[in-house]
Amino acid sequence: MLAGGGARGAYELGALSVLLPALEARGERPRVLVGTSVGALNAAFLAGTAEQPVAEVVARGLEIWEGLRFEQVLRHLGSPGAVRRLWRYVGQFLGVPGARLDALLDPAPLRATLASIVPLAAIERNVDTGVLHAAAVIATSALTSRSVVFHRGGGAPPRDEKRGIDYVDVGTDGLGEQHVRASSAIPGAFPSVHVDAPAQARGWYVDGGTRLNTPIKPALALGARRVVVIALNAIGAPSAGDGALAGEHRPDAIEGAAQLLQAVLVDPLAHDVQTLATVNALVRAAPGDAPAGRREVPYMFVAPQERDAIGRLAQRVFDEHFADLRDAWRARDLAFLGRAVAGGSDPAHGELLSYLLFAPQFARELIALGRADAERWLAAPHADGPWELGPPA
């Protein structure tokens, strides 16, 4: 399972470049792939290349992220389209009929980028031939605010009223770029995406991570017996210094937005992983008394050790490559975004910048961090080789 985080998705490929070969050496390879937000892009890529050797898949995935640039995801901030967006905002502010700002940024280039790097047509073949059991991406319905799991394979899981999850089998329509773009449409930053097929799910969607950032339940519902969770946020408590109850620092608006992201993405992640470990403990303690459908689920969980690890990376990369005037001329969009959110000032501001810092320099740092965190997980003692049953250390 792959979680969300915009430009931070390179971390996932870094971790997988270590985990996939280790699993293959054990005769194991993921057969249910589920992603949300930018994790949908990575899940779709892995599903479309599932029949290929692991070494080739990993090499290609790393190549994609190390070469991904801002203009392959977003239109230039000074483009005519960006100017029109500004005028639409002014018109909406002034009450001009029909004037609406749908998003701050325009991800129009992402459609062509997805077509060039993700073999979407191969997903259906890989499921039909049994290479994969199921592949899925998750988006949030703008109409119902429920999580919608667009899946190929995996049977027909029932609607989950408790968690607000609907399952939509894409059938012969297949998982397409519109489903992936919908899953990664960060509200406010990116416009919502219209999904045309299947017909019963037609409508507008936004980022799947807003409601379901850790798709453990959908992965199990689609047939997974073990789960590998690659997360982009640490779930541990802040360091002692950060955990002081008293302090005189007054957060600004950017830090406030980072706190909202923490509440949406990190806190549910911690809860879901802890719940999985708790259920495992209950089933193990009294297997005969376990609730119907409950069983032990071995898992692997890779995430940064420190909550501000990626924010610190983004801050450093911005300071080193995009902060001075020469850098601003060479990479105007990233320089402007970094300055707009004060991304070079501290890790809290860098955290927000990290979602949009589509730059090779940042991708390489994230890949290295993901590899290191995955190697640390594999080196630690677990219940069964790399698989854990209890709470993560």
Characterise this structure.
The protein is built from 15 helices and 8 strands. It is α/β, with parallel strands linked by helices. The strands form 2 sheets. Strands 1, 2, 3, 4, 5 and 6 form a 6-stranded mixed β-sheet that branches. The protein has a two-stranded parallel ribbon with strand order 7-8. The radius of gyration is 21 Å and the shape is globular. It starts with 9 loop residues before the first helix and ends in a 14-residue tail after the last helix. The model has no long low-confidence stretch (mean pLDDT 86).
Biggest sheet architecture: 6 strands, mixed
Q: Class by helix and strand content?
A: alpha/beta
Uncertain segments are none
Order of helices and strands: HEHHHHHHEEEHEEHEHEHHHHH
Number of helices: 15
Distance between the termini: 19 Å
**Helical fraction:** 40-55%
Shape: globular
Report the C-alpha radius of gyration, rounded: 21 Å
Mean pLDDT, to the nearest integer, reads: 86
* Percent of residues in β-strands: 5-15%
How many strands in all? 8
Quick summary:
With 393 residues, this protein is α/β, with parallel strands linked by helices. Helix content is 45%, strand content 10%.
Features:
393 residues; alpha/beta; 6-stranded mixed beta sheet; two-stranded parallel sheet; 8 strands; 45% helix; 10% strand
Give the secondary structure arrangement, pairings included.
Blueprint lengths: L9 H16 L6 E5 L1 H11 L5 H14 L2 H4 L6 H15 L14 H9 L3 H8 L5 E8 L5 E7 L11 E5 L7 H7 L9 E3 L7 E5 L8 H6 L5 E4 L22 H33 L13 E4 L6 H13 L3 H6 L1 H9 L6 H7 L6 H20 L14
Parallel strand pairs: 1-2, 3-4, 7-8
Antiparallel strand pairs: 2-3, 2-6, 5-6
